Amino acid sequence: MSLGSVIRQARIDAGLSIDDLSERTSIRGGLLKEIESDDFTKCGGETYARGHLRNIAPHVKMDATMLLELYANEQSMQPRGIHEMLAENNVMTHPVDKKTISWKTLAGISLATLALLGAVQIIISNSKTTSITNPDVVATESATAEPSNSPVAETTQSEQPAPALPRDSYSSGTGVSVSVSATNGKSWLFVSDANGTTLYSGQIRSGQKLNFSSTTRVSLKVGNAGVVDVSVNGKAAQQIGTDGEVVSVSYGVTS
């Protein structure tokens, strides 16, 4: 499912029309329609496109990081420069025009520099230099580095950092346990608990299994429902959807 389709489905799920979303984000309705059709050519460049996605995400109850990741996978054609990354959080800032220096100013600076150099040459040529003869030679003692007898601290095996293990479990409690496995492909996945706390936001790759637990409820939003299997409290759950379908489901302690 493409980025534009994900945004369109999320907008519909949030009960918003194009005009509603335009009013809340101050983005033209025509541009919103083009974004939902995966056409980002009129956004003004990647920095502005990313800024629009950050603006849209909270109004359609989506995670901005997820939309930016989908944009990078589908739309981004080149690595971003540091200036673009710094400007990403303020896409409405107008570029500042660089001021140019006129040729008259440059000519004045050059003439002033030449005049100064000429004055320095005259001063140097008229000055007398005094040579110092038979300078006193001061003998200094050379310091010889003595070998240190202090023992060299050796790094023990226990001080070596342990390799980081890949994380596959996320929890805000232990009342309900949900496992999500991607068996036939990859999908984007958003997981939260009953308090609205985000447990996970990102992709689940083919063959990957992620585990989630919460005190009372675990809610899932899946972008490609047909490729995932879900088990709740150790029992296999019913298939939640088909390939390419965006599905939202919740599981409680008694599920």
Automatic annotation (TrEMBL):
It holds the Pfam family HTH_25. InterPro entries: Bact_Cytoskel_RodZ (IPR050400), Cro/C1-type_HTH (IPR001387), Lambda_DNA-bd_dom_sf (IPR010982), RodZ-like_C (IPR025194). Residues 140-176 are annotated as: Disordered. GO terms for molecular function: DNA binding. Residues 141-160 have a biased composition (Polar residues). Residues 184-249 form the Cytoskeleton protein RodZ-like C-terminal domain. This is Unannotated protein. It comes from freshwater metagenome.
